[in-house]
Amino acid sequence: MDLIERYVAAVRRHLPKSANPDIVSELADNLRSQAEEREAQLGRALNEDEQAALLKPHGHPWLMASRYMPQQQLIGPALYPYYRQTLAIVVFWVVLPIILVGGAVTALYSDQPGQWLSRMLQSAWNGGIYSVGIVTIIFAVLEHERVKFTALENWNPMRLPKPSTGREIPRSETVIGLVFQLAFLIYWTKVIGLPNFILHGGEAVQYAAAPIWNQLYFPIVATVAVSVGVSLADLIRPWRTTAVSIVDIMVSIASLAIATIVLRESHFVTLLGGAEDAARLAQVEFWVNRSIWWTFAVIGAISAFMALNEMWHLARNRNGAAIRFA
């Protein structure tokens, strides 16, 4: 398989499934025609260096694919399907838990129980606006900065892999994961604060974080930042290399270690209020802390699975390579 076929295959990967299949055929025919003209001038077939020189002016496969898509405002067609999919996930995993859990906590702690429904809906609205706004901002930044990625300008056609080599990373998985990583990083570094979900007497309920969060602040920042780097690498080159797989395994192991440290604790936040509210406050505080504990239990389990899964893929690819070259 020559470089032109590998380039066309890479462009096809970056096109949505709904794209017209004739696009790929037209691109392949155009590139072949240019190659044949050049071969006629030279009187011989093009070698790999000459094929690379022919492909280089056409740009990275991602940019080439984007030229075949209709232009949109704010979020372009290459990212819009993933933006819509991410919003659906956010509504399910952010707004719905706020309605169920936040509503129950608000009803339990509210000094006016009769108004718990309106406060629950208010909390869900605030959470929805916050989540959708953050997701939209991140996708808009990704869309705007996409053309500035140096990796897309300094790419080398000689390094295009064959479609049969390397494990394919679904682009939807990469984009959605990247957005959630950036959203968490924005929250964790307090670039944008969370809205208030629990009110008492018209004022937001205050809380104090346990010392464990100060101890884990920088390890969590570093882990998420490296995870963002892995997602960006997968976005630009959707075939996993050994180096990226190893870094991804290290990220999963670090996440598992952080979750293990957190699970050794039982108290993560302290809600602050008056003595007259001590009983209700203690109930709410208990369930908030239990929710945090179970959240990190799930994170630890997912991290362990992801590390083992990536190790398995890495070992399988190495064994396959050893068999092919034996």
Question: What this model shows, in words?
Answer:
This protein is mostly helical and 326 residues long. It has 2 domains: 1-69, no CATH class; 70-325, no CATH class. Helices cover 69% and strands 4% of the residues. β1 (199-200) and β2 (203-204) form a beta hairpin. The longest helix has 48 residues, at 278-325. The radius of gyration is 25 Å and the shape is elongated.
Q: What share of residues are in beta strands?
A: under 5%
The percent of residues in helical segments reads 55-70%
- Biggest sheet strand line-up: 1-2
Q: Output mean pLDDT.
A: 77
Structural class: mainly alpha
CA gyration radius, whole angstroms: 25 Å
Total count of domains? 2
Number of separate strands: 4
Compressed to H and E, one letter per element, the order equals HHHHHHHHEEEHHEH
Shape: elongated
Low-confidence stretches: 321-326
